[in-house]
Amino acid sequence: MAMDRRALLRTATASGAALALGEAAARPALAAPGGFPDYTYQRTLLRPEDLAYNPTGEIIFPCIRGVYDKLPDPLGRYYLYYAPHDAPGGICLAYGDSLEGPFTEHPGNPIVSNNWQPHYSVSHVSSPHVMWHAGLRELWLYFHGENTTTRLARSRDGINFTYDSVVLSTAMLPAGTTETSYARVFRHDLPARAAAYVILFMRNTTANHRDIGWGWSADGRKWTIDPKPLIDHAAVGAVNVGGPHLLTRDGSAYVVCNTDKESGGDILITEVGNDFTRRDHLGVFYNSRATAPENGRAASPSFGTDHGVPYMVYEAGERLSGAIAVARG
């Protein structure tokens, strides 16, 4: 009998040897690869039905940022960015004083819409990732709209943004690329490439299997993109992978990403090394639970620390019908 995809993902290792995880499917992993915390679901933070701005009944792609030590007069200690995906989308903000909530929806949502003249008019904007640029003391917002294009906007207060530029598009990758979206950008030095920033994103092609792409930049605006996937869906036994995030520990770098529900719905981890030359697939980083709100899918993680305690904020539930949840390490 053929092994199902969830079982395949839980047996994948860098060498291809089996790693039996047994009954861990319905609960958090007993040991997180790479020495990272074992995250355990705590509570749901945002539900579409509770939000005033709710054009499509769905929200995705959270990005959590501590702003208490960065902004002069923030609305709360933490800003949580998120968005609907389907048209018209819209980049949204909620704020709170604890990573375990509660979070208050900003009354001005969406803070970035799908029509920003004279810069663009698109069907939707979504997938907000906000990076703190320490040198300029600005919050840099990367977001997509359409799925072929990732854009950058900049802000001094995390609410009012100034449009900057297109930073990534399908035109920057080989022919046949159809999507370059769901990007996250991180401060990470790559001396051999004269780079100070790394971009991770979901890429799709006419073959309709989603992989994780990557690139590097000296300034976070102009990028060199590797034409080859950083994480190939087939290498981890998945149909599609997405929602990448960079983590670092003990002098090495790791990329976590989610699989689709058909492939198990879990979050996987790959060690790429501090110079991004490794491709060691370590298996399951976080097991999605069979019970609500995850219902077999956890995705698009974002990470933060509250008074020294690590947290993961993520999509919980089936795509476009889930919520934003938080797990504690």
TrEMBL record:
<feature type="signal peptide">
    <location>
        <begin position="1"/>
        <end position="31"/>
    </location>
</feature>
<dbReference type="InterPro" id="IPR006311">
    <property type="entry name" value="TAT_signal"/>
</dbReference>
<protein>
    <recommendedName>
        <fullName>Twin-arginine translocation signal domain-containing protein</fullName>
    </recommendedName>
</protein>
<keyword id="KW-0732">Signal</keyword>
<dbReference type="InterPro" id="IPR023296">
    <property type="entry name" value="Glyco_hydro_beta-prop_sf"/>
</dbReference>
